Amino acid sequence: MSTQVLLRRPGEAGARRVFVSDCEGPISKNDNAFELSAHYIPGGDRFFAVVSRYDDVLADLVKRPGYKAGDTLRLILPFLKAYGATNEGIREYSSRRILLVPGARETLRFVRANMPSFIVSTSYKPYIRALCDLTGFPRANVYCTQLDLDRYEVGEDERNRLRKLAEEIAAMSVIEIPEAARSVGDLSEGDRRTVERLDEVFWGEVPRMESGRMLEEVNPVGGFEKAYAVRDIVERLGGRLEGVMYVGDSITDVSPLRLVRENGGLAVSFNGNRYAVREAEVAVLSDHTLATSILASAFHRHGREGATWLAGEWGYPAMEGYVDPGLVETARRRWAAGLPRVEVIDDQNRERLSRESSAFRKTVRGEAVGRLG
Prior knowledge:
- With about 375 residues, the protein is an alpha/beta fold.
- It has a single domain (about 5-370), classed as 3-Layer(aba) Sandwich (Rossmann fold).
- About 55% of the residues lie in helices and about 10% in strands.
- The protein contains 19 helices and 7 strands.
- The protein has helices spanning about 5, 30-40, 45-60, 70-75, 75-80, 85-95, 105-115, 125-135, 155-170, 190-205, 215, 225-235, 255-260, 275-280, 290-310, 315-320, 325-335, 350-365, 365-370; strands spanning about 20, 115-125, 140-145, 245-250, 265-270, 280-285, 340-345.
- It has a 7-stranded mixed β-sheet, with helices on both faces.
- Helix 8 (about 125-135) links the parallel strand 2 and strand 3 (about 140-145).
C-alpha cells in the first residue's frame, strides 16, 4: 500500500475563500520606506532603523493610545520633505526599485484565478501603484497608505531644524528589545534615554512645526488598520473571517494575523519575524512564493483544516491529488534538491521557528531590511 493512501486527508469544505496578503515581504523584497529614507536622507538607512525600532517599542511595549505598528511611515515624512522628497520623486524612485520575491507574479495570478484576492499594505500608494502595474494586480483590490507630500509647505528654518534632528537620530544607537520585554522598563538604561529623546522629538517638537500636520493627517495602513481592512473585505464580499487566508511577515501584520486566526481563518507567516510567527498558525521559510500558492490551493479546496493538515504533512505524497496538480509539477522542477520549510506553529516550536524564520528572512530580503520590525 502506498504512503499516499495511508494519509488521512480532510474532506472538502464549502465556504467561500478569500486570499489576503501583505505586500513587502510576502510579495516583494523591498522595504520602500527604508529605501526612500536611505535615498533622500544622509545616513537615512541608520535613521530609519532607529525610528523603526522606536515604532516597535511604541506599538508592542508602550501601546501608545492611537498608535499602531507601521506608523513609522508617518513619523519619517517631515524628514523626507525636508530633504526634497516630492510625489513625483517618490513615484519615480519606487517604480525603479521594485524587487519581487521570485514567483510573486505567478502566485498573484494563481490566487486571483481561484479566489477573490487582495493586498493590504502599509506601503505608500506610489510604490503600490508601481507594483500593481508591474504584476498586473488590480489597484481596486489594494489597501495602502495614501500620500500627498506636495500639499505640505516647509519653510527654510523648519527644513534646517528637521535636518539637524535627522542627523541626531541617525547618530543614535538602535534600540535592542529583549525577547521577554513587556514594558519600556525592560530596556537598557541607554535605550530608555533614546526612547525619551525620541518622544520629545516626535510628540513634542515636530508636532509644533507646520510639517507636523503630516503626523496627524497621514494614516498608515498598519496594525489595527490592516485588521479593519480585512473586515472590510469580508463585508464587501458577504463572507466570513473563517474564509480568509492572510499572509504576513512583520509587526504590522500582528492584528490581521490574530484576527484571522482567532476567527477560524488561516494565518500564515511568510519569512516572518518574531512578531508574525507569534500570531500565525503556519510558518513558511522559502525564497520562492510557490509555497504560498500551494497552501492557497489547499485552503481554496479544503479550508483552514485542509491547509494546516497539508502543512503538518508537508511533502509531495500529501500534495498529490490534494492541491492543483500544476503546482506539484512546478514544485518538483523548482525544488529538486528539497522542498522549502513549512510547519504548523505550536507552543513547542514557536520560539525555535521565531529564531529560524527571523534569520531566514535576512537571507531573502537582505540584512538591513530583514532585521526591521
